[in-house]
Write a structure and sequence with these properties.
Length: 311
C-alpha cells in the first residue's frame, strides 16, 4: 500500500469558500492525495474566524465540482451535528458529485463552546452515539438497492429506510481517530477503514498503532486491512524567518511549535520526520496547514518536500 500525503485545514479559523477552493485546487495541482477539512463552527484561540464558519459538507459539495482528482473528506465530523440518516445522504450525494472521491471522518465531538454558540445539543456521553452512527451510515450504504434498512438503537432508530442514494464508491472510506485507550480503537477496528491519531509525539503514535492493531486481532480482523494515519500541525520553510513568520501567523512562537510532535523545519527536516512516522506504521500523513492564504507555504511543501517523501 503506497503512502499517501494529504493537506488538512481548519477553515473555522477564518476562510471563505473561495479561499478554500483556491487552496484545494492548488493542492490538487501539486499532487497531494487528498484535501481534508475540520468540521467546526467556531474559531479557536485568538483567531477572529472572519468571515465566519463554513459548513464542511456544503464546502465539500462545492469542491466536488471545483476539483477533478484530489480526494475530499472531513477530519472529523461530529456525531452531534447531523442525524446519521441525513449524514449518509449528504456524504453519498457529495460522493456522486465528485465521481467517487469522498471520505468520512466521524467522531464524538469535543468543542462544547461551539455547541452553545449555535444551539447544538452536546450530550455528556457520546461514544455510544458514535457507535450507533457508524453502524447506521455503513449499514445504509451497504444495503442492496431494492432492500430496506432498519435500526433500533438507544439514540437512533430507522424503520424501513430505502437506504438511498448509494455512493459511487463500493465503500466510502470511514475514518475513526483519537487517543482513547479502549473505545476508540475498538470502534475503529469494528467499523472503520482508517484509524487516525493526531497531535501526539512519535512514541505515542507507535503506542496507539499497536493498540488498534491488537483491537483488530481481538475481533478476528486482519490488522493490515485498517489503514493507519497521523495528522500533525505543520510549519515548513526554507529559512528561519519563514518558519517564524508562519508560526506567528497561526498564533504560535517557533520555539514553542518545534519539538517531537509537530512537523516543522526545512525540507530535509520534514522528510526525516515523515520517514520516522512511516517507519512507525503510518500509511497516510495529514499536514495540518492553518493559514490558507499562504499559498507559498503550500507550494514549498508540495514542490520541495512532497517529491522526496517515502512512496
Amino acid at each position: 500500500m503506497a503512502t499517501e500525503y494529504c493537506v488538512f485545514t481548519e477553515p473555522q479559523q477564518g476562510a471563505s469558500y473561495a479561499t478554500q477552493r483556491v487552496f484545494a485546487q492548488r493542492a490538487e495541482e501539486l499532487g497531494f492525495h487528498a484535501f481534508f477539512r475540520s468540521d467546526h463552527y467556531l474559531a479557536m484561540g485568538a483567531a477572529s474566524g472572519l468571515p465566519g464558519p463554513t459548513d464542511a459538507w456544503t464546502t465539500l459539495a462545492g469542491l466536488a465540482r471545483d476539483t477533478s482528482r484530489i480526494r475530499l473528506g472531513t477530519l472529523v465530523s461530529s456525531v452531534t451535528y447531523r442525524h446519521p440518516g441525513i449524514l449518509a445522504i449528504q456524504v453519498a450525494q457529495v460522493d456522486e458529485m465528485s465521481g467517487g472521491r469522498v471520505e468520512l471522518g466521524l467522531g464524538t465531538g469535543w468543542f462544547e463552546d461551539e455547541h452553545r454558540a449555535y444551539g447544538i445539543p452536546f450530550p455528556a456521553r457520546r461514544f455510544d452515539i458514535l457507535e450507533e452512527q457508524l453502524e447506521i451510515v455503513n449499514g445504509l450504504w451497504a444495503t442492496p438497492t431494492g432492500e430496506t434498512f432498519s435500526y433500533d438503537g438507544v439514540h437512533h432508530s430507522l424503520e424501513d429506510s430505502p437506504a438511498l442514494p448509494k455512493p459511487v464508491q463500493d465503500r466510502i472510506p470511514v475514518i475513526v481517530g483519537g487517543g482513547g485507550p479502549r473505545r476508540t480503537p475498538a470502534l475503529a477496528a469494528a467499523h472503520a477503514t482508517e484509524f487516525n491519531i493526531g497531535f501526539v509525539p512519535e512514541a505515542v503514535v507507535a503506542e496507539k498503532f499497536a493498540v488498534v492493531r491488537a483491537a483488530c486481532e481481538a475481533i478476528g480482523r486482519e490488522p493490515s486491512t485498517l489503514r493507519l494515519s497521523v495528522a500533525l500541525p505543520t510549519v515548513v520553510g526554507a529559512t528561519e524567518a519563514d518558519l517564524e513568520r508562519r508560526a506567528a501567523a497561526i498564533g504560535s512562537e517557533l520555539s514553542r511549535f518545534r519539538g517531537d510532535t509537530n512537523i516543522c523545519g526545512s525540507a530535509d527536516e520534514v522528510v526525516a520526520k515523515v520517514e520516522r512516522l512511516v517507519a512507525l506504521g503510518a500509511q497516510r500523513v495529514y499536514f495540518q496547514l492553518e493559514d490558507m492564504t499562504d499559498l507559498a507555504h503550500l507550494d514549498y511543501l508540495g514542490e520541495r518536500v512532497l517529491p522526496h517523501l517515502p512512496a
